[in-house]
Amino acid sequence: MNATALRRGLVRPGGLWTEFEVVQATGSTNTDLVTRARAGAPEGAVLVAEEQTAGRGRLDRAWTAPARSGLFFSILLRPADAGVPTERWGWLPLLAGVASAGALSRTAGVDTALKWPNDLLVTVAGEERKFGGILAERAGDAVVIGMGLNVSLRADELPVPTAGSLALADAISTDRDPLLRAVLRSIAEWYGEWCRFEGDPGASGLQESYAAGCATLGRQVRAELPGGRERVGEAVAVDGDGRLVLATEGGVQEPVSAGDIVHLRSVPREE
Fold first, then answer.
1. pTM across the whole model
2. Helix (H) or strand (E) holding 30
3. What is the domain range of residue 252?
């Protein structure tokens, strides 16, 4: 990656991005940036790694990929400085998903969908495949958002057979520099609008855009909840708190704030 050109294109006076660094390898960009956030690093710091040796997903799951095969980066945000109340910070990983999906669809020419709460999907050989994940971590009055996106991985390089990549989805471009630039610019635009409305997901258009791009809605799903509990139902909405609303048996609508979602089948919609 051309760090100098990326820095010149992204770090500008008055813009969100204030620092931009590319390292050849690190354990986890999120771990590194959380440490810097607690030491007072400014909002808008971006840390990119060509390779992560201890990349993490939700629930401390490992995220592995060959060096220079994807985009592995973290960003530091301080929404309190913009007057966003903490109860709305849970929308930040959903915001990153909306921004990234839109940017990658435009730049790579691949239809990109969202799986609640933090996965990005592409279609490979007619099947939905996860090719990206988002991890948000609180660090005092800051939030660090990490992303891992499989870009050029071949089938024999995938961490699991059900994973995907932009290359396997027949992307028109797998040049990581313009892809990263597009994603970061899109995040900056969405974050600016979200902050302008003090994190209100409705007024900022975030809630509507997330629902429009979310492949989970309209599906029969199984929610695997903390404590070994499960719920099965149709995913019918994402509410104002970013929770997935399930319509379960008996017509009960139940919001899910945390858990793993398994897509079971599509639900035919009435015309």
1. 0.92
2. helix 29-38
3. 219-263
